[in-house]
């Protein structure tokens, strides 16, 4: 008897599908060949496992059987009792960290957008000089007063042309943005030189009838450029 | 998300739905049949956990045959009137399990939940498939308990009938009723995985033949006739089927 024949005989006996003759044949076989007993036990174990597993397997694969209408309400009640209100609360709570995360991301984006506007380079240092080739004027100098009135916090100096070249290249150390205002009375113009993180800028404002108005233009220009 | 809510949403809260379950996908599926995936017919686990009535309705129809069949296999020959009751009770237990799964998810650390959210679209379907083996196991265990209860009651009522005595009246008592049930004791996720492997490995007609022999009590001759194969082939298929089962579950379920 080969392996397959022994398996068939053993399975029929284990599954109670064997005839009396087949049962007798197996008994004789096991008595005469004790080595087959272990094999028989293995087949019995496998059959035992199959009886446990096959019902689950068949149930999982099953797709027939109409869901009874009367069962719906009972099961929905159970669903509501188990997963109802507390579950919704849980769901809302579950979102809280997402809200926090979203808020943090949004706030960061806003800060990044506002940062350039909020962190302008501060008030520039303004140095003012009046180029005076004709020498000091007796009595009150209205031009000097106009300069003082426009830049109250800056020292107004008076140079001749020789000193100017040294002064205009000598920028205050540590200042991010600085401006030099040169009022050339003889040329009738106000020159503004800007020194900052970008490219140096220079602009000349011709002085018309009203020096104060020209100085205001120069001051506006400085404010505008240093705010960028 | 998407502002979609089922008609019976009582609290007015918007319900999250995966893309394939959005209502506008159904009309598209009539034009493009490939959209008719099985995923559209299966409920979404996250929606079930949120008490989504429409999704539970889908689950009832999808899972009922599983509960019913698991109860039938054990009870039909002995207590046919109890089959639907047991299926219903099993479904109720499944609802508790769905909540338990949800709580277990909540206990995960934040990073794990974020990772889960990322892979939710393709994982959701795989996870809901685990409900079938879980429900089968619940229904099977409940059916076995019911059968044991009935035996115990009869014996307790003064009827000195042993299991063997009842066996003569009722025929073959299911193996499941035996107290040692290592398969039933298996953790459901592991059991679902093993059942999935077994279903994949038992190429037709091996699985069907095993069920014919062990569940339906057919003889070799009847099986050969049913599947239109030679009588000698039946034993070969049964042997191969049992070997596959042994590879996955261990001998006699002892690896379980």
Largest protein-protein interface: A-B, 51 and 72 residues
> Which consecutive residue ranges of chain B, at least 5 long each, have pLDDT under 50?
1-15, 121-126, 160-164, 167-172
Q: Give unreliable regions of chain A as ranges.
A: 86-92
Give me the count of strands of chain B: 0
User: How much of the polypeptide of chain A forms β-strand, as a percent range?
Assistant: 5-15%
Mean pLDDT of chain A: 82
Number of strands of chain A: 5
Q: What is the assembly state of the chains in this entry? A: heterodimer
Which percent bin holds the helix content of chain A?
Answer: 55-70%
Account of the protein in words:
The complex is a heterodimer of chains A (228) and B (256). Chain A has helices spanning 3-14, 20-32, 35-61, 69-83, 85-118, 142-150, 161-169, 211-227; strands at 125-131, 156-159, 178-184, 189-195, 201-206. Chain A is rod-shaped and about 145 Å long. With 228 residues, chain A is α/β, with parallel strands linked by helices. Helix content of chain A is 60%, strand content 14%. A five-stranded mixed beta sheet of chain A has the order 2-1-3-4-5. With 256 residues, chain B is mainly α. Chain B has helices at residues 25-31, 38-41, 45-49, 53-75, 83-106, 110-118, 120-129, 131-156, 163-170, 188-201, 206-214, 220-227, 231-249. Chain B is globular, with a radius of gyration of 22 Å. Residues 1-15, 121-126, 160-164 and 167-172 of chain B have low confidence and may be disordered. In chain B, helix 5 (83-106) packs across helix 8. Chains A and B meet through helix 1, helix 3, helix 4 and helix 5 of A and helix 4, helix 5, helix 8, helix 10 and helix 11 of B.
Topology of helices and strands:
The complex is a heterodimer of chains A (228) and B (256).
Chain A: H1 3-14, H2 20-32, H3 35-61, H4 69-83, H5 85-118, E1 125-131, H6 142-150, E2 156-159, H7 161-169, E3 178-184, E4 189-195, E5 201-206, H8 211-227
Parallel strand pairs in A: 1-2, 1-3
Antiparallel strand pairs in A: 3-4, 4-5
Chain B: H1 25-31, H2 38-41, H3 45-49, H4 53-75, H5 83-106, H6 110-118, H7 120-129, H8 131-156, H9 163-170, H10 188-201, H11 206-214, H12 220-227, H13 231-249
Helix pairs in contact in B: 4-5, 4-8, 5-8, 8-10, 10-13, 11-13, 12-13
